[in-house]
Structures are given as structure tokens and as C-alpha cells.
Design brief:
Length: about 250
Amino acid sequence: MFELTGVSKRYGDLTALARTDLIFESGRTTVLIGPSGSGKSTVLRLLVRLIPPDTGIVRFAGQILTDDNAGLLRRRMGFVVQEGGLFPHLSAQDNMALMARYLGWRKARISARISELAELTHFPIDALTRFPAQLSGGQRQRVSLMRALMLDPDVLLMDEPLGALDPMIRFELQDELKSIFRLLNKTVVIVTHDLSEAGFFADTILLMRDGQIVQQGMLAQLLQAPANEFVQKFIRAQRGSILPLDR
Ligand code: ADP
């Protein structure tokens, strides 16, 4: 679904992403993990072309992403930014409807889609008219997810979608998200700090450090055959958080 060929990104002297070749396969869930500043969000931003690469090309569904076609192609990508990125002055349903209205969808189509998504994400219908500040953290994340899914995109990209939630809500939403991914059969790319969360979601984990992918594989491969000392340290630093792969 996405293909990076020779892609790199620098900010002054800092290499946010070293020259990288990478494929994100259709219908699969890929998780980007690594310490803060390792380049995870940079990869996401390159995939949606919020930033252009310095070198190389990014393909989406076979097309090279450019400044000219990014606006149009982005409609096929659902993006959940860190902290959800909801507009505080718009109700949950107005946040969700924004892009559909811009594209000229009729009212009936918009409300049918909103109801469908509320059912999918177990969001209470009567809370759709509330503003983000009147929702719980878990509900806000559901709204961000619904907004990203509104146009039924081919891919879903999520930057630390559950980072700000307390452990129980997080656990519950992890389960729900995973069943939603299965049901919708989307290509999913998630950024997280948490290795057990990565293992729970991922078909493939990409472990990053200093703008490089240091290891790529399933959680079991990382645990059983860490590529180097950094991977070992990274795993050890997640002390106690490695859960069984299935639950
Ligand atoms: P991560 O998501 O893994 O925390 P990022 O991809 O956000 O890391 O950032 C990678 C590196 O690039 C970091 O060192 C960060 O400070 C730097 N960086 C990211 N965006 C910018 C920017 N707009 N200007 C300067 N440096 C940036």
C-alpha cells in the first residue's frame, strides 16, 4: 500500500530519517516503535506527505506522492494525530463531518455514516452532540478514530492513539481497535512507545533508533533474536510490560 524508496529526511544537521527502503503491505498492521525522537512520527508524516522527503519517493497505492496529488490521495488515508487533534469548538459529530461536508456529501449520507461509525466504535449516540471537553479521554479517542474512518479510507495511520489514556481504558480500547481493524481489513500503521501494545497489534514491528530501522519482524522475533545490543536494552527497558501475545 505504501512503498518508500531511498527516502530520507533531515532537519539541519539532524537525520530524522536515514535513507530507507520500506514496504507497508495492504491489509496488514505495521507498528513503529522506538525511543522518543527516533523518527517514528517522521515516517508517518512522510506517508501522508505532511512533509516532503529530501531524497527518494513515497508511493501510495502505486502512485508517487507529490505536492500536487497529496490533497486528493490523502482522502484515502485516515490519520489520527497524537492527542486526537479534535477541534475544541466543534461537537463530536461536527468534527467527524468536516471533510464529508467539504466534499459536498448530503446531510442524510453524513448522518447515516456517523451512526454506522458510532455503532462500530461503541460510541453513545447521545454524546455525538457534545464538545471534546465534555467527553472522557476514551470517548475522545473514539471520535478521532471515527473522524479518520469517515470517508472509509484505504489506510489508517495513528500516532500514539492510546498514549494519554489510563491503563484500563487503554486495555479496553486496544481490544476494540484490534477487532475493528480485523473487521474493516484496512492497512494500518500505528506509532507507539509500548512494546506489548506493539506486539498485540502488529503483523510487523519496525523498531527505530536515530532515524534508522534497527529491526523488523514479529514481537517473538525481537524477543528471541534481538538484532543488537540496542534492541536488547530496549526490550529490557520495557520491564514487566510484555504481556502474552494473545488475550
Ligand atoms: P519520534 O516520533 O520517534 O518521537 P520524530 O519523528 O518526531 O520522533 O522526530 C525525529 C527527530 O527529528 C527528532 O530528533 C526531532 O526533534 C526532529 N524533528 C522532528 N520534526 C522536526 C522539525 N519540524 N524541525 C526540527 N527537528 C524536527
